[in-house]
Amino acid sequence: MAVATVAALLAALGGTLWLAARRFVGAGVQRLHGGGNAGLMHGKTVLITGANSGLGRATAAELLRMGARVIMGCRDRARAEEAAGQLRRDLRQAGGPEPGPDACGAGELVIKELDLASLRSVRAFCQEMLQEEPRLDVLINNAGIFQCPYTKTEDGFEMQFGVNHLGHFLLTNLLLGLLKSSAPSRVVVVSSKLYKYGDINFEDLNSEQSYNKSFCYSRSKLANILFTRELARRLEGTNVTVNVLHPGIVRTNLGRHIHIPLLVKPLFNLLSWAFFKSPVEGAQTSVYLASSPEVEGVSGKYFGDCKEEELLPKAMDESVARKLWDISEVMVGILK
Ligand SMILES: NC(=O)C1=CN([C@@H]2O[C@H](COP(=O)(O)OP(=O)(O)OC[C@H]3O[C@@H](n4cnc5c(N)ncnc54)[C@H](OP(=O)(O)O)[C@@H]3O)[C@@H](O)[C@H]2O)C=CC1
Ligand SMILES: CC1=C(/C=C/C(C)=C/C=C/C(C)=C/C=O)C(C)(C)CCC1
Predict the structure, then answer these.
(1) Which of 97, 109, 304, 328 is the least buried, fewest Cβ under 10 Å from its Cβ?
(2) What is the pLDDT of residues 128-169, one digit of tens each?
(3) Where on the tree of life does the source sit, at the highest rank (predicted)?
(4) Catalytic residues, which ones?
(5) Do 173 and 334 form a contact (C-beta atoms < 8 A)?
(6) Pairwise CA distance, residues 296 & 293, whole Å
């Protein structure tokens, strides 16, 4: 018995160490890969929702380094300012190019307040964008909330469906004109593999009859994919492309609503460090879809690790996608 226990512990320790070693090598390769694109985004304006944390922050860091003007659409100005300060410090410490007009200069960071749980905030944000921004080359619908307790947005929508889908639905529609006038331009939507466990229950989109926090998250991520495919269909011929991705499992703040007993939290942190991607690794596909010439003209596709992946039939259902679009228009008040 003792021998078996020791063997099991050694195997677990060995496995964790091997994974940790692999992560270091992988991360190094990722950084080297990213290094070759300095200046690629010079002169381009990118809007990233939820850019003060996790994947959005890592995506902003990379696109900033590549020379983009990055607009951080965040709901909390203090957190956004803190993140922006760190991003600028990181850029300087990495010896990266100074922000500036020359072709290889780093880009610049702009903070604008955007709360996707409030249609009023989304409209005010878009009005400011249209007044102040001459162009929009890339919109990255990144912000998200995961398995929160049952709450509703300011407009009465179930919070995950409201923030992850409906807020981005209105935002994208209100910025379509600017995206079209900036063509060739791109929309990038951050979904999740967990879409597979979702369904669009048109009878109870706000989960008023019953609430399952996991199914609601999955529903919102399935909605991201259906929205992407319907938008791609409607944008044919405009030179505005839209693609959707899953980042893998990434060590971010998304798990803030997951209750972990205090005693096992250190173990979960260790496991997440060994098994989860870093935000930089998780952001690679968002950066790829936002910037790579390889996907110029590609639209309506689902990506993971910078490669196109197959979708389940329920995510390819055009009639459900069209019905979701029509209902979303009514819910957010986009009058025909
Ligand atoms: N981490 C993972 O393993 C995975 C993540 N994803 C997706 O990645 C995306 C980014 O999440 P991740 O970086 O992991 O998590 P984080 O919690 O670190 O970042 C989420 C971001 O969304 C913002 N946000 C939340 N609610 C709102 C709102 N109402 N209005 C505006 N912004 C809001 C947060 O702002 P604030 O800081 O103020 O809360 C934060 O900036 C999400 O769409 C998520 O579904 C998909 C698969 C796996
Ligand atoms: C980092 C970390 C955690 C976060 C887990 C997360 C963020 C899981 C998200 C999974 C998703 C969103 C999958 C697909 O969409 C825990 C478990 C709270 C423990 C502490 C360390």
Answers:
(1) 304
(2) 999 999 999 999 999 999 999 999 999 999 999 999 999 999
(3) Eukaryota
(4) 217
(5) yes
(6) 5
User: Residue with structure tokens 């005010």?
Assistant: 124
Asked whether 146 lines ligand 2 (CB < 6 A), one says: yes
d(C-alpha 33, C-alpha 25), whole Å: 12
As a whole-number percent, the residues of the chain with pLDDT over 90 amount to: 83
- Provide ipTM, 2 decimals: 0.95
Answer yes or no: are the C-beta atoms of 302 and 245 closer than 8 Å. yes
Return the C-alpha torsion angle 250, 256, 261, 262, nearest 10.
Answer: 90
pLDDT of residue 88: 93
Ligand 2: which residue has its CA nearest to atom 15? 192
The torsion region of residue 312 among left (phi > 0), alpha (psi -120 to 50) and beta comes to: beta
CB of 248 shorter than 6 A to ligand 2: no
CA dist 271 and 274 (Å) reads: 5
Instruction: Find the mean pLDDT for residues 207-218.
Output: 97
Tell me: pLDDT of 32 over 80: no
Q: Which residue has the tokens 């050694």?
A: 10
pLDDT band for position 95 (cuts 50, 70, 90): confident
Ligand 1, residue 56: give the atom nearest the CA: 13
Ligand nearest to the CA of 196: 2
Strands of 69-74's sheet in order across:
108-113, 69-74, 45-49, 138-141, 185-190, 240-246, 302-304, 307-309
Choose one of 192, 214, 215, 268 to mutate for the ligand 2 pocket test, by most ligand atoms within 8 angstroms of C-beta.
268
What is the residue with the minimal CA distance to atom 6 of ligand 2? 255
Q: Nearest-CA neighbor of 256 among 178, 154, 145?
A: 145
R_g of the chain, CA atoms, integer Å:
20
* Sign of the dihedral defined by the CA atoms of residues 169, 121, 159, 269, in that order: positive
Tens of pLDDT, residues 16-29: 566 556 555 554 44
